[in-house]
Amino acid sequence: MDVLFNQLFSGLSMASILLVIALGLAIIYGSMGVINLAHGEFVMLGAYATWAMQTYFGFSILVALPFVFLAVALVGWIIELVIVRRLYRRPLDTILATWGIGIILQQAVRLGIGAESRFVKGPGILDGNVVIGNVVMSNYRIFVILFSIGVLAATWALMTKTEFGMKLRAVIQNRGISECYGIEASRVYSLTFAYGAGLAGIAGALITPLYSTIPTMGTSLVVDAFLVVIVGGLGSLIGAAAAAVMIGEVTAVFSMVMNDTLGRIAVLGCIILLIRFRPRGLFPETVRR
Amino acid sequence: MSILHAENLFSYYGKSPILQDVSFSLKAGEFLSVLGRNGVGKTTLLKTIMGLTDRCEGRLEFDGADISGRSTPERARLGIGYIPQGREIIPRFTVEENIIMGCYARTDGKREIPDYLFEMFPILREFLTRRGGDLSGGQQQQLAIARALAMDPKILILDEPTEGIQPNIVRQIEDAIVHLNRERGLAVILVEQNIPFARKASDRFVVLDKGAVAMAGHKDELTDAVVEKHMTF
Q1: Pfam families from the entry (chain A) (predicted)?
Q2: For a tag on chain B, would you pick the N or C end, based on fewer CB atoms within 10 A?
Q3: What is the model's pLDDT at position A285?
Q4: β-pairing, B155-159 with B16-27?
């Protein structure tokens, strides 16, 4: 029983990181219809930025988080400005282009920093565990879970409570008329893309103590994040949260009762079944576009 | 002084010129109707004023400044209130959010709904929290006009505001448009198929045919013979 709880807890902490990655993907896809295959590399950049700040400036992860967010958001902003912006009318080409960007980023890091794994120390204040009975929960993982919930809440507030969010929702529903009322749609898109990239950066920073920081780390993470977006239903924040928890936990439980590989296959099997019966995800948009 | 002045205007979708050599001028506070059969470029003319066509050549001045190179949002912020055909309100926004959206074109940063909008269209106050998409066509049209007015425009350009709307609301909308022009001094460009309303409301008119100005004049010159020649099929 305790083993199960421990496993569920670690599944939850992975799920919450997955959620932050998936949120970025979902926002970028939901607003501009771009399937961003470079998203995993944004996560990787976030991880390396955290490593760099720790190695060269001695910043702990907690201090580095806002800087990582801004740095990766800036990278996303530039990529949107230089490449993605030109392809909004050609959605298939954005897939190819962002994939290419991903490869370039990955190889650039491999060439510049090296292919070997980099170590990032967890923050000192969050050393130690909370122990309830035989269930051991590391403070850092608890922090990750709470922080991700915070990111989800902040994103929800940004979308629904701020003027920026309202402008974004207006542009999503009718770009032409939004521009006729003074909304700079292209600026809204740039900022949204940058925000999505920044979220990936945060996820990268959060994951560094739990995962090996290598140039290819983004690839496997982004696959899971795509699964989250598909299962959750596009455009739904609550769906993304539910799907992240489900996928994280199911993976954790299956890997415990079987092994990692079989667990993986079982998870994919479950998702295929789910998509068979709910093709638009758990919480699809109910309004016609 | 003219608030809107177009000279030798050409406007394109792709490579096809939809408007060809259109010139007209509108003084502040004036009411101009744009008339003509279907497909002669009336809607395109309004879209060209907003910068929504692919390309445009010629001179287009608004309030003394050349706007032909400006983007659509910039034109909106200069004070051009556009009410498109089909209304295009945001279906998932509430009535209130739709009107507030009009304020985004304001340059003074205000985000309040002017009270006179609700005096003009009381139904909007009643439906403030309903979603725009749940309103009837006529209510949506009132909402679209309110949204444009929320930006405190210098000119209103309306594309067939009474098309496909239940008759009891058509009257309200017509009265509102006339009121805005006469009492509030707003310049208006109205694209309309409804000749009696155009006659009653406008100071001057322009008739388009095949993308060019076929005739322009004072409202008294809009005789039955002119209507017969340019507007009946």
Answers
A1: BPD_transp_2
A2: C
A3: 66
A4: unpaired
Residue A237 has pLDDT above 90, yes or no: no
Determine the Cα–Cα distance for residues B54 and B16; give it in Å rounded to an integer. Answer: 10
Residues of A in contact with B102 (CB under 8 A): 181
The number of residues in chain B equals: 233
Please give the average per-residue pLDDT across A263-279, as a whole number. 89
Q: Which of B35, B11, B25, B81 has its CA nearest to residue B190? A: B35
Which residues of chain B make contact with A173, given a CB cutoff of 8 A? 90-93
Q: What is the pLDDT of residue A134?
A: 81
Contact A40, A102 (CB under 8 A): yes
Which tokens go with A242?
């539910």
Which chain A residue lies closest to B74 (C-alpha atoms)? A182
Whether A234 and A172 have beta carbons less than 8 Å apart is answered as no
Instruction: Report yes or no: B99 and B143 within 8 Å, Cβ to Cβ.
Output: yes
* DSSP secondary structure code for residue B89 in this structure: -
pLDDT tens digits, residue range A43-102? Answer: 999 999 999 999 999 999 999 999 999 999 999 999 999 999 999 888 889 999 999 999
What is the ipTM for the molecules in this complex? 0.91
Q: Do the chains contact at A176 and B101, CB–CB below 8 Å?
A: no
Place of tokens 């101009």: B32
Domains and CATH numbers, chain B: 2-231 (3.40.50.300)
pTM to 2 decimal places: 0.90
Does the beta-carbon distance from A174 to B71 stay under 8 Å?
no
Residue labelled with tokens 């399937």: A35
- Quote the pLDDT of residue B179: 95
Q: Which amino acid is at B14?
A: G
Q: Which residues does chain A have within 8 Å of residue B90's beta carbon, measured at their own beta carbons?
A: 169-170, 173-174, 177
- Nearest chain A residue (CA) to B103: A181
Q: Which residues of B touch A181 (CB under 8 A)?
A: 73, 76, 101-102, 104-105, 147, 151
